[in-house]
Amino acid sequence: AILTIARAIPDDMIVVIKEHPAQFFWQRYPEFYRIMSKQKNVVFANRDLNTHELIEKAFAVATITGTVAWEGVFAQKPVLLFGQIFCEGIRGINHCASCEDVIVAIRLIEEKKIEFATSDNIRDFLLRLKQATYIGITDEGYFRTSSLTKESSIATISQILEEQVAFAQPSGENCGS
């Protein structure tokens, strides 16, 4: 995603990379840093810099799946999204998969043709999200930082599966017949 942006942006722009706070340098291959350091329009931001200040000063925000997309929506900054995220359908988020997609998004941003989510849009989105989701954990690693228990998550997931199975059954029929 970084190289795609770097190859698509005009010469007067730079890509500023701010690593996720939970990302450690040892989690990336050294080759990643060698490749990025060779790009004339790519720089790394200090991890201590305030993310919200960076977003405020940015032309746009780019991510694969990060919550910085959501932060960009709230800051009314265009978002270039290279993956999938829960808020991907909200206004201001532009799906990108290629240099051409980035070029088009930049042109739309420059021409001020990007619609941003209003407070009402965000509230409506959050209400629909609340109605369509459940609270639970499916990834074992998240239990370390959550107040949810494994048992409560299993119970929630079981309830969802039971509801889906019941919904999928034609009325008047049961599994045993």
Structure commentary:
There is one protein chain. The protein is mainly alpha-helical. Helix content is 42%, strand content 8%. The strands form 2 sheets. The protein has a 3-stranded parallel beta sheet, sandwiched between helices. A two-stranded parallel sheet has the order 1-2. The radius of gyration is 21 Å and the shape is globular. It starts with a helix and ends in a 9-residue tail after the last helix.
Please mark out the parts with pLDDT under 50 across 5 or more consecutive residues, or reply none. none
Order of helices and strands: HEHEHEHEEHHH
Main sheet characteristics:
3 strands, parallel
* Shape assignment: globular
Mean pLDDT: 90
DSSP helix fraction = 40-55%
Number of helices: 7
- How much of the sequence lies in strands comes to 5-15%
The counted number of beta strands is 5
**Going across the major beta sheet, what is the strand order?**
3-4-5
Give the radius of gyration. Answer: 21 Å
- Distance N to C terminus: 52 Å
Class based on secondary structure composition and strand pairing: mainly alpha
